[in-house]
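User: Predict the structure for this protein chain, please.
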Amino acid sequence: MYLNKPVITITGTNGKGSCAAVCEAILSAQGYKVGCYTSPHLVKFNERIRYNNQSASDDEIQKAYIDIDPNLGYFQQATQAALKIFESKNLDAYILEVGIGGRLDPVNLSVEPDVSIITSIDLDHMDRLGATREKIGFEKAHIFRSGKPAICGDENVPDSVRQYADKIKADLYYYKQNYFFEEFSDHWNWWNKSIRYENLALPKLYIQNIAAALQALSVFPCDISREAINIGLEKAFLPGRFQIISKPILQILDVAHNPASARLLAKRLKLLSCEGKTIAVIGMLKDKDIEGTLVPMLNLVDIWHVATIDDPRGASCVEIAKFIPNKSILFDNPTLAYQAALEKAAPNDRIIVFGSFRTVGEIMGEKIS
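Assistant: Here is the predicted structure, written as structure tokens:
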């Protein structure tokens, strides 16, 4: 499908949502009308289809689905619905998150982007993408386009990504080669060969993903001011990504669901002091690397509340608990695990909810309702 306004497509093992949120916030701060399509959702499907900083309504989504072939797959239908809604809104720019991999994803097959971003490449969905970073990188690199800017935010760019970019003659920009950043205790700096931004406010989201977004926007065919970048970075927020809730007790909601994202969660937790105990509420899908996701967290958690996710893909609490060496308390669902954690926690303790979008989404749904 041809979209007559500039398009950014984003893929990656982790960080897609953060990167999309930053691009959306900065473009919106500049005054552009932006459509943003992401997945998965946390609480409600409508979160996937956003325009002008609001989710599409139930009525808009229902109307968009009327003429879509019901025999298409779930993601094909959702992508077509999002693009139909966006086309009706006279938008100025599109930010489209690519799902698993990239090569065969409906977003990649539906649109021609002006700029493409790979946020990170790690081991996930290996049954479909391959068991090595090289194979996974090859699948993700297919969102690149000939003669168009392609950004890779991973610190260690696989050869398969470079080779595919060379093959199709994409303009590849990657971290520590074409753009850079440095982080300090109270600010951070970002620069490439033609632009330098100093004394940026420390963001709520992971800086490496934001750095990739800034590189993408620096080559995107829309004018963006330093003021819009400042405003956008200040406003950019993504629920469920190291989201801190301070009442009635310190809680952190994070959708970390694979080893790479769990390592980042562990790193951030170590920087956040806690005088009491850490109680983890976890539920995972059985097709994920459960053991690899748990390992970075084992030494940081004192009490484990392990929940079964009520989903065909959901791992049982027993399946998860066998990878936890210290005692776990088992629950039939994340809500029960979370409520028990709240009851057990002392004032100086903290609760960490992680392991899956479904786990965090269920808890967020409880808090919203």
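The mean pLDDT is 93.
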